[in-house]
Amino acid sequence: MARGELRIYLGAAPGVGKTYAMLEEAHRRAGRGTDVVIALVETHGRKHTAALIGDLEVVPRRTLTHRDTAFTEMDLDAVLARRPQLAVADELAHSNVPGSRNDKRWQDVHALLDAGISVLTTVNVQHLESLNDVVARITGVEQRETVPDAVVRAAEQVELVDMTPEALRRRMAHGNVYRPERIDAALGNWFRAGNLTALRELALLWLADQVEEQLDRYRADHDIDATWETRERVVVALSGGAEGETLIRRAGRIAARSRGADLLAVHVTRSDGLAGADPAVLARQRVLTESLGGSYHQVSGTDVPRALLEFARGVNATQIVLGVSSRGRLARLFSAGVGTATTMLSGSIDVHLVSHERAGRGRRTDRVPAALSRGRRIAGFGLALAGLPLLTAVLLVLPEPSLINNILLFLATVVGVALVGGLWPALFAAIGGSLLLNWFFTPPYGRFAIAQGQNLLALAIFIVVAVAVSWVVDTAARRTRQAAEASAEAQTLAAVAGGVLRGERPLIALLDRLRETFALESVALLEEGETVAEVGRPGLAPDTADVTVQAGDRLRMLLRGRTLEASGRRVVEAFAAQAAVALRQERLAAEAATARPLAEANRLRTALLAAVSHDLRTPLASAKAAVAGLRSTEVSFDDQDREELLATADESLDRLDRLVANLLDMSRLQSGALGVTSIDVGAEDVVPMALEDLGPPGRRVVLRVPDDLPMLRADPGLLERVLVNLIANALRYSPPDRPPLVTGSSHGDTVELRVIDHGPGIPAEKWDDVFLPFQRLGDRDNHTGVGLGLALSRGLTEAMGGTLTPDETPGGGLTMILALPTAGPA
C-alpha cells in the first residue's frame, strides 16, 4: 500500500488565510472526483472559513473529558475506518487532550499517511521547533505547541500563505480574525507591524532553505554540475599570500551588495603537501572571513584552477574572486597562471580578477635553504678533490684504457660526490672530471683539445648526465628535508590543537604549549601594549623579548629565551594566529556566561508574567467578589450564604498566599538566598502536618509511613512544603476511586518517602520537563497553577541535601520519590 502524500500550508502568522487556502484546495480536489473528508477544521469563529466547508463530508469529532472539562478532538479511528483518499486535518502542531491515541496531531497525521490517506494540513511559522525560541524573543510569548522541523520538511509540498503586515492588521481591524473584544489587545501586542514583518521574514527564509535543499537533491540526483544562479554565492580564492585580506574584503563587499549572498573563502593546497602556504597567514584570513559572515574551506588538488572550479560548482557559486597574478613576466611566458586558466574554464561563473600591491611584481621568496648540511657539502668537495686525481692515477696505470669505460667510472664518481655533498660539489666534480678526461684520455693527450668528433660527443654526454644526476639527487634531498620539516610542523600544530581542545583555558594552554615546544623562558600575548595572557617567568615586555610576532591588528606575541630560525618562526606565527582565535573564544565564552543568567532571568520573568497573569487574578477576583457580596446592602444573605462567601474568600486568599509563597521561595532559590535550618525530624510527624495543610482533600490520601522509620535530617518547614506540593499534585491527577498513597522506607543512610498516584502518568522521556518552572505538562490552560510546584519541590529538596526523582507507578501513574539523609549519631 502506497503511503499518502502530505501537503502543508505554512502561515507566516495567524489569520493570513492558511485554513481558507486549505479548504479551497479540498474543494478543487473534490471537484476533480477525489474522495475528500474533513477530519478536523478549526474555524475559530470565522464565519467565512466556516462557510467554506460547504458540502464537504465532515467526520464527527471525538469528545474527551479532562479534569471535569469536555474537549473535542479529531477522531483518528473514525477517519481510518472511513478511508478517504484525502483528509483535511487543521493545525498540525496541536497537542491532543490526554487520553487521546497520540500526544500530537502530527502523529495522527502520520498514522493517516501510513494508511495510504493523503492529508492537507496547516501550521504557523511560530510553531516550528527550530524557530520557537526566536519567535519568543521577537514577540515575548513562548509557544507551548511545536512541531519538529523534520515533519514539515518531509512533506511532499509546503505552500507559504503570506500577507503584508498592513493587510493583516486591516483584516483584524475588520473583525475577520478575532472577536471584537480581542482586537485591540492583539493589535497592540502580537500583531504589531514589527512582529509581523519579522515573522514573515522567518517564514520566507525557512521555506527558502527547504527549497534550496530540494534543489541540491535534484541537482545531485540528475548529475547537474552547471551553475544555476538561484542564489548569489561568492567564492574568494586564497593563495596564502598577503593579498588575501584585500581579496576577502573585496569579495565581502560584492556579497553585501547582493543581499543575502553567501561568502565562501577557499584555499587549494597541492596534493604533495610540500609547497603549502603559510598557516599563520591563512589562519588570520580565516578569522577575517568569519568576521564578515563568511565560511572558510580548504581543498586539495594538483591542478589549482580545476580544483577551485570543482569546489565552486559543488557549492553552486555564481562568482569567483581571484587576485591578479603576482608572478614576473618571465614566469608568465611559460604558464598562463591560475587567474587566466580559471577564467578560461569558468563557464557560466563570473570571475573577478582583483589587482593588489604585489600584482605583476613577482613573488618574494626567502632564500632557499641548502638541501644538505655544510659538513656534507665540505665532505663532497673533499671527495671530489681526492677522488678524481686518485681515479685518474689508477686509470693511467691500466693498459689500453677505453674512453667509454673511463667516462662511466668518472660518472660514477660524480654520482657518489652528489650523494655525499649535493649539487655544487657534484657540479665541481663534473667539470673537473671532464677536464681530466680531456687532458689525459682524449687524443691529442696532454692538451685541452679533442681530435675526434665522437669523443667530443661522449664528453658532452658525460657533462649533461653528470649535471642532471647532480640536480636530481640535490632535489630529492631538498624534498626530503622539506617533507621532514612539514611533518614536524604538522605534528607540532596537531599537538597544539589537541592540547588546546583538552584545556579548560584554551589561550593559556596554547601559550604553555608554545613555551614547551621551543624551550622558552616565557611567552606573553599583548593587546595594544597591555598583557592579556602570560606563561613562564613574568615581566615580559617588548624591550626584553627575543622574538616579537604580530598576532592580529592589535595583538602581539612576545617570546623570551631564544631566537628562532625561519621555519620555527612560521610555526610561531601559526601559534600567534591561533592565540588570537583562542582569545576571542574565551571572551565570547565569558560574555555568554555573563549573558546566560540575564537571559535565564529574563526567560523566567517573561514566563512568570505570562503564567501568573491569570492565577493571581483568579483568587483575587474570587475573594473580592465574596467580600463585595458581604458588604452589599442591596442583597440579603442568610447565615449559610454568608458562611459560603466567607469560605470562598478564605480559600481564595489561602490559594493566593500559597502562590506568593511559592514565587518567593523560587526567587530565593534562583538567587541562592534561601535559608535552610536542618534538624533531626521524624517523617511520621511531618507527613500528617502536610495532609492537614491540604484541608479536606488531604483526608483522601492513604498514609503508610512506619512509626519506626529513622529520623530525617531536614528543615521541617521546607519538608512540609515539599510534601504539600507533591501530594497536591498527586491529588490533582488521581482518579476519584484510587486516591494517592504516601509510603516510607529506609535504605541504608537514606529515608525515602514515596508519593504514589494512579493517574495518567508521564512518559519517561518527559520526566525532566515536569521540574521546569512554569511548565504544566499536559495542561491546556493555566487555570491549575503557574507550574512551580514540582520545580520548587526539587529545589527545596536539593537545598536540604536530598533528591527528588520520578518513577513509574506499577499499573499506571507516577511515583515521586523523596530521598533525604538520615540523622547522624547523637
SSE layout and pairings?
Elements: E1 6-11, H1 18-31, E2 36-40, H2 47-53, E3 57-58, E4 62-66, E5 69-73, H3 76-82, E6 86-89, H4 105-114, E7 118-124, H5 132-139, H6 149-153, E8 157-161, H7 165-173, H8 180-188, H9 193-221, E9 233-238, H10 244-257, E10 262-269, H11 279-291, E11 295-300, H12 304-314, E12 319-323, H13 329-334, H14 338-345, E13 350-354, H15 374-397, H16 403-421, H17 423-441, H18 453-502, H19 506-517, E14 522-527, E15 530-536, E16 547-550, E17 555-560, H20 566-631, H21 639-671, E18 679-681, H22 683-693, E19 702-704, E20 712-714, H23 716-733, E21 741-747, E22 750-756, H24 789-799, E23 803-808, E24 814-821
Describe this structure as you would to a colleague.
With 826 residues, this protein is an alpha/beta fold. The protein has 4 domains: 6-221, 3-Layer(aba) Sandwich (Rossmann fold), CATH 3.40.50.300; 233-354, HUPs (Rossmann fold), CATH 3.40.50.620; 374-479, no CATH class; 675-821, Histidine kinase-like ATPase, C-terminal domain (Heat Shock Protein 90, 2-Layer Sandwich). The protein is 50% helix and 16% strand. The chain has 24 helices and 24 strands. It has a 6-stranded parallel β-sheet with strand order 3-2-6-7-1-8, sandwiched between helices. Strands 11-10-9-12-13 form a 5-stranded parallel β-sheet, with helices on both faces. A 5-stranded mixed β-sheet has the order 19-21-22-24-23. Strand 14 and strand 15 form a beta hairpin. Helix 11 (279-291) runs parallel beside helix 20. The two termini are 74 Å apart. The model is unreliable at 363-368 and 776-787 (pLDDT under 50).
